[in-house]
TrEMBL record:
It catalyses: ATP + H2O = ADP + phosphate + H(+). Keywords: ATP-binding, Cytoplasm, Helicase, Hydrolase, Nucleotide-binding. It is an enzyme of class 3 (hydrolase). It comes from the Bacteria. InterPro entries: DEAD/DEAH_box_helicase_dom, DEAD/DEAH_RhlB, DEAD_box_RNA_helicase, Helicase_ATP-bd, Helicase_C-like, P-loop_NTPase, RNA-helicase_DEAD-box_CS, RNA_helicase_DEAD_Q_motif. The lineage of its organism: Bacteria, Pseudomonadati, Pseudomonadota, Gammaproteobacteria, Legionellales. This is DEAD-box ATP-dependent RNA helicase RhpA. A motif (Q motif) lies at residues 1-29. Belongs to the DEAD box helicase family. Residues 1-29 form the DEAD-box RNA helicase Q domain. One of its GO terms (molecular function) is RNA helicase activity. Residues 417-430 have a biased composition (Basic and acidic residues). One of its GO terms (biological process) is response to temperature stimulus.
Length: 442
């Protein structure tokens, strides 16, 4: 199937062509015709499968056929600010030849900008549940004309405790609305909720397809203790083959601590987690995108919704709590047809959880034995320690433009550009590469 066969509005098809897409992904090919036919659907598919376009494209098409007074017609709920930003960006990209107002309502951002956007009239609202309820309670948003309700990453909204707000919001919309639910997985608890929110939904299940991206090389390294993990991490960060990396930490405190320690050793690093203000989070992501920082130390707030094409490595300093988050984490690399590497450090206490992750992804992850690292005494504490005073002193510095270690980062760029394995081409070669493979991020 081609996008030209989906009978989307010509202006939407023009935008898709401008992005260089010709063939829809499986979840798009199966979902879009059913959505255009007005059906409720429950769709589950792996990360990176193009779920965002699967509901954004038919939503834009639905709007293109509407006439009359402007009221919010499409409501998209998502659990995190990063995902909301990604969806808003996609809607603006695919709808750039149409004149629709797309408003993002997320926590951590100034109210006055959102109030001003709502006052101009919204066609599509992309929101996190808590901030949307706040605007509704203050009578700033009218949901009485919603015709399509989209629940994106519904499993995560359930895990994060948003489901009560989601159910309350659904009651504020017309009963005859069309409801679309997209999720990486659908368990029994989520199935009960879908029975309340959807009407005779069509089930589209692609979650059993191979979960791990084939171009992501996955490796495991044993660590004896926390000090051993830190020494392992520094060993990898000194490897010039790492161009950009996202390092996942289990807690916000450890993300700050690790980012501070890396900066003190000359690495260009910053932290990203839910306690930071949204403008700080946005700035940090842009710093990584534009090469102002090389290493992002993040909690699972970065596991979904961050789309940076040249992240070459993901490092699981701590394994994720939920198996599905492992898939979302490693999906931050190996994007736009490039290869990527996912490295995980495992403690002896992680053995059972590692087995659950391997069962979930349907494959064993290779345990790597590195002689060079074994020769070092990793059981001793790292010579650099960070006390509470230095953490507090440097905390604010983490949220500003980190002065990158130009020597290390420029060396990485030079090595990367000449490394055939990872292939970071020039702009001209990149266009040639994309044309040849026809593989781009959606």
């Amino acid at each position: 199937m081609l996008f030209s066969q989906l009978n989307l509005h010509p202006a939407i098809f023009k935008a898709i062509e401008a992005c260089g897409y010709t063939t829809p992904t499986p979840v798009q090919a199966k979902s879009i015709p059913s959505i255009l036919a007005g059906k409720d659907i429950i769709a589950s598919a792996q990360t990176g499968s193009g779920k965002t376009a699967a509901f954004v494209l038919p939503a834009l098409h639905h709007l293109s056929e509407k006439k009359g007074p402007r009221k919010p017609c499409i409501l998209i709920l998502t659990p995190t600010r990063e995902l909301a930003n990604q969806i808003t960006k996609a809607a603006n990209t695919y709808g750039k030849f149409l004149r629709f107002n797309i408003v993002s309502l997320v926590g951590g951002m100034p109210y006055h900008h959102q109030i001003k956007d709502l006052a101009r009239g919204a066609d599509i609202i992309v929101a996190t549940p808590g901030r949307l309820m706040d605007h509704w309670e203050n009578k700033r948003v009218d949901l009485s004309a919603i015709e399509m309700l989209v629940l994106d990453e519904a499993d995560r909204m359930l895990d994060m405790g948003f489901i009560d707000d989601v159910q309350a919001i659904a009651k504020l919309t017309p009963a005859h609305r069309q409801t679309l639910l997209f999720s990486a997985t659908v368990d029994k608890k989520l199935s009960k909720i879908t029975q309340q929110l959807l009407k005779n939904p069509q089930r589209i299940d692609l979650s059993q397809e191979k979960i791990s991206a084939p171009k992501i090389k996955q490796e495991l390294y044993k660590a004896n203790n926390a000090h051993h993990k830190t020494r392992l991490l520094k060993h990898f960060l000194n490897d010039a083959n790492i161009y950009k990396a996202i390092i996942f930490s289990a807690t916000k405190i450890n993300a700050d601590k690790l980012a501070n320690e890396l900066r003190n050793e000359g690495f260009s690093a910053a932290a990203l987690h839910g306690d930071l203000k949204q403008n700080v989070r946005n700035r940090t992501i842009e710093q990584l995108r534009h090469g102002k920082i090389q290493f992002l130390v993040a909690t699972d707030v970065a596991a979904r919704g961050i789309d940076i094409h040249d992240v070459t490595h993901v490092i699981n300093y701590d394994l994720p709590k939920f198996c599905e988050d492992y898939v979302h984490r490693i999906g931050r690399t190996g994007r736009a047809g490039k290869s990527g590497v996912a490295i995980s450090f495992v403690l002896p206490s992680d053995a059972k959880h590692l087995q659950r992750i391997e069962r979930y992804i349907g494959e064993r992850i290779k345990m790597v034995h590195n002689v060079e690292m074994d020769q070092a005494d990793f059981t001793k504490p790292s010579p650099v320690s960070i006390d509470k005073v230095s953490i507090q002193k440097n905390k604010s510095a983490a949220h500003h433009d980190a002065a990158p270690s130009k020597k290390k980062f420029s060396s990485a760029k030079k090595r990367w550009s000449s490394n055939d394995r990872y292939n970071k081409p020039s702009e001209k070669n990149n266009q040639r590469f994309q044309k040849k493979t026809g593989n781009k991020d959606r």
